[in-house]
Every structure is written in C-alpha cells, then in structure tokens.
Amino acid sequence: MSGTFQTRLANIATEMETVLAQVLPEPAGPQKRVMEAMRYAALKGGKRFRPFLLVEAARMMGHESLGVWHAAAALECVHVYSLIHDDLPCMDDDDLRRGKPSVHKAYDEALAVLAGDALLTLAFETLTQDIIHPDAKIRLQLISDLAASSGTHGMIGGQVIDITASQTQQDEALITQLQALKTGALMHYAVIAGGRLGGASRDDLRNLSRFADALGLAFQIRDDILDVEGDSTAMGKHTGKDFGLGKATFVGVHGLLGAKAKAKDLGEAAKTALEPYGHKADILKASVDFVLNRQK
Amino acid sequence: MSGTFQTRLANIATEMETVLAQVLPEPAGPQKRVMEAMRYAALKGGKRFRPFLLVEAARMMGHESLGVWHAAAALECVHVYSLIHDDLPCMDDDDLRRGKPSVHKAYDEALAVLAGDALLTLAFETLTQDIIHPDAKIRLQLISDLAASSGTHGMIGGQVIDITASQTQQDEALITQLQALKTGALMHYAVIAGGRLGGASRDDLRNLSRFADALGLAFQIRDDILDVEGDSTAMGKHTGKDFGLGKATFVGVHGLLGAKAKAKDLGEAAKTALEPYGHKADILKASVDFVLNRQK
C-alpha cells in the first residue's frame, strides 16, 4: 500500500506541475516580473499534498475529470500564496522555502506581496470556469468554501493567532484552534471540494469532514515534531525555529512523546471515518500513515 | 444637477457604510485584531466612488436591489485591500490614508498584509451569496470579472508597473497602460458589474465599457494633477510625492495644461458613450464633472 501511495502522490505532483503551468499566466508585458515570481513560487516544489487530497477524495467518490485537476491547481495557488506572505520579513521572516530562497529574497518584498495577492485572485478566477464542473452552483459552492477556509475564520485567522501566540498562554485549546484554522481549514477544504466534485451526499460530506479534521491536526502535530527533531536539509527550511521562538506548539504542551501519541490517535480516528468506503478509501487511509511518518 | 449628484454620492456613501459594517466580520475570538484592522481600514472613509458607479450603473438600467449593495460592498473591499497593500513600507510607504494613519501604522505590517488578504477573500465570498442575484451564472460572471480586473492583467499588474516605472522611460503608452490597469480596471468592473446586475444587453455593456474606460483614465489624470496642485490637508494624504519621486505621471508627459486638456476630452468621450440613455444617464454624466473638478 505504501508503495502505491508514494507512486500516486508522485504522479499527482507531476500532473499538478503541468496543470499549474497552464493555469499560471505566461510572463509577458511590463508587469511580467510578478508573473515570474508567481511561477517561481508555485512551480517545481512541494509535495502537493493538498491537491492530492482533493483529487483522491473525488476519486474515492468515483469521479475524475479535468475540472478536478483545475480545482486542485486553484487550491495549490492559495496554499502557495499563504507561504509567500507567511515568509515575509514582517511575518515569520523565513528566507528559505522548499529549499530555495523565499520569494521576497529571490525578488523583493513588494513583488512577494503582489505575487501572493495575484495567486489568491487567480485561485478564485480559476474556480469560476466551466471546466471545473458543469453545474454553476457547485462552482459557487467551491468558491464560497475556499473563501471561508482561507479567510478570517480559516487560514488567515490561524496565522493571526500564530503571530501573536508567542505572547499568549500556550494552552491546548488555543493551539488546537490555531492549527485547525491555519493548516486544518485548507486541508478540510481539499477533501470536501473533492467530495463535492464527486457528488458526495450529506452523509459522505460528514464522513469526509471527520477524516479531514483529524488528518489536518495530525499533520500539524507532525510539523511541530519535525520542527524539533527534523533535519533542516531534508525539510528545505530552517528547523527548531517555532519551538525556539517560544511559539505555541503541541510539543511545547504535550512533550515529544505525548505529541506523537496524540498524532497516532488522530490518525486512527481519520481512518475510522473512512470505514464506510472499504477498499475505495485505501489511498486516503495510506495518506494518514504518510502524514504520521513523514520526515519533511 | 451637481447638487443632485453630490446628494446621491453622499447617500450612497452612507448606505455603503451600513452594508460594509454588516458584511465585515464582527471582531471576536483570538484572531479579532485582524477583523479590527479590516474595519479600521474599510469603515468611515472614502468617497465610495466605485460603489457609486456600480449602484448608479445598475439604476440606469432600471435595477435596484439589496444584491447591488452587497456587490458594491465586495468591490469596496477589493479597493480597500489594494490601498492597504499599496501603502506598505515595501510598496509606496505611505503612513497617511484618508486622513488617518495607514493600517501598518495603526496596527503593524503583518496585520496590514493579513487584513488586505482577508478583505480580498471576503470580497469573493460575498459575491457567491444568493442575495447578490438569483442567477448563479451572473454571480459567477461577477466573480470572474472581479478577479480579472484585480489580477495581473488588472489592478495588480498596474501596481507592478507603477513600482518599477520610476526606472523606466516615461512614455505615454506605458503610463496609459499603467493607469488603465491600476485604477481603470476596477472602475471598469464597477460599471460593468452594475450593468450585469441590471440585465444589460451586449450593446449596453459596450456603451458602459466605453464610458468606464474614459472615466477611469480621466480620474487618474486628475489624480496626477492633484498630486502637483492639491492641498495635502484636503487630500488626506501626502501630495507632490509621485511627481517628486520621478514616477511616471500624465503631468510629467503632457505638462499641467496638457493633462487638463486631455482629462477634459476624456470626460466628453465618457458622456457621449451614455447618450443612448437620455436623462437616465444624468447622474453618471454628472459624475464625469465630479471627476474632472474634484479637489481631493
């Protein structure tokens, strides 16, 4: 199963590269620098785990289409925009991302702000297109879901808590909320969007939602563990940083062993949520093990 | 007519304040600082000229609804986001906006980036809602138009040219393109969105488009004139800055008198485009005089 999973993940990353290259504007005109910065940030990098979740959730529901790939590209644009803005000097001040200089280092801060803005804008534009799904209401639902997942009650809200949390008491409720918003919301969107494109029923959406919430939190706990244990060369970014900064992390609250146990429990809950789908859920279940064991 | 125009503009600004206060998230939770920053930037300020254009274009087509107001609020959110990001130290570095400290001064840079991101996200979310228009395809068209107007081939593209244009030859073609993208694209969207909500035909959209393009360029030329002639107290921002920075402006190319003549010609063209609508176009035509004569 693990071999199959790695192959599927790698194949999706390859496909994603092709679709992203089509969706991103071709650098041209006097504003081409920002288009170059968008491509620099979005192409040739990343595990494409969010697109994987979207594509595989749709597949589990028996659906595959070019629209699914374009929806996955839109989602990845939002993820990449968040990385660019989070890396800015006024935010997390990271000069390394996916093993390359961050956008504000490779270009400059102004272009980093604008490239992020443009990727967010492009994501919504992409989701309006007919190719996504023939039903206009489904497209609107995806746009609405994506905005909710990435706005003040989603990813942005999580980032706001994150940049202020070092001065706040590190209680577990706050960290869980932070991570549910900052990382969890977009993973939740990925799985639900795949479900919606695949014609998921209300019950299906409930199951997918439980899966996504547990997986998203496990993912972040693993991130916190890697921040302490990880190898910065393998990670492609600096490690030990969040913990060193006194940022709120699960390792800070539970200790290393406690955090690992919590991640394992969440992984079990994620798999259980997909029991109704039998072998059709094998790949998504394998993704849980990937999240729990990943080294970067 | 002018009296009527001023009243209508003021009334729309008042209504806009109410609708924006409803559309913006109520500050709550550990991420409330970003919601406060959004309200600080979006409420109590501005002429609301873009919402005015949207509402009055719809009215000219005989349409008025709560959806028009919400669409106008979404548009204003995009305008405000662009101001917040443009004011950042890495961009135009303006510490004064609408007579108040810019968001990065009143809060901090990280919150300014995130508040801008959140306003852009909120704009798209708002346009997905049923209240905008009963036809899902019209809502999708508005989202698609807004993304195109504010992306790399619209407002963001214009800003990119602007921040690099001081090192570039100030030729008229480039300045016109810069302004068509940076200011014109969103005004064009305002007029077209009002038209679409009002059931405009293809011919109507062509007329509205000609009106909006001429008006948008006249608006920016007036901005350039005010940058040289204006009173910084009346403007609520520093003047003389663009010209002093050697930025590409119409005054730089045409001189003051030449720029004024060009603005006047564009104003005539804008009015001519609305001839087919007779007296129904009176308010939009009056807005042309407002643009040409405004002191701030």
How does this structure look, described?
The structure is a homodimer of 296-residue chains. Chain A starts with a helix and ends with a helix. Chain A has 14 helices and two strands. Chain A is globular. Helix content of chain A is 72%, strand content 1%. In chain A, strand 1 and strand 2 form a beta hairpin. In chain A, helix 4 packs antiparallel against helix 6. Chain A has one domain: Orthogonal Bundle (Farnesyl Diphosphate Synthase), CATH 1.10.600.10. In chain A, 53% of the residues are buried. Chain A has a two-stranded antiparallel ribbon with strand order 1-2. Chain A has 296 residues and is mainly alpha-helical. At the A-B interface, helix 2, helix 6, helix 7, helix 8 and helix 9 of A face helix 2, helix 6, helix 7, helix 8 and helix 9 of B.
Task: List the uncertain runs of chain A.
Answer: none
Strand content of chain A: under 5%
- Would you count the extended β strands of chain A for me? 2
The CATH level-2 architecture of chain A is identified as Orthogonal Bundle
Rg of chain A, alpha carbons:
18 Å
Q: Any idea of the CATH topology of chain A?
A: Farnesyl Diphosphate Synthase
Structural class call of chain A reads mainly alpha
- The end-to-end distance of chain A, rounded to whole angstroms, is 20 Å
- Give the strand line-up of the largest sheet of chain A: 1-2
Give the oligomeric state of the chains in this entry, treating copies of one chain as homo and distinct chains as hetero. homodimer
**Largest interchain contact:** A-B, 56 and 56 residues
By CATH reckoning, the class of chain A would read: Mainly Alpha
CATH superfamily of chain A: Farnesyl Diphosphate Synthase
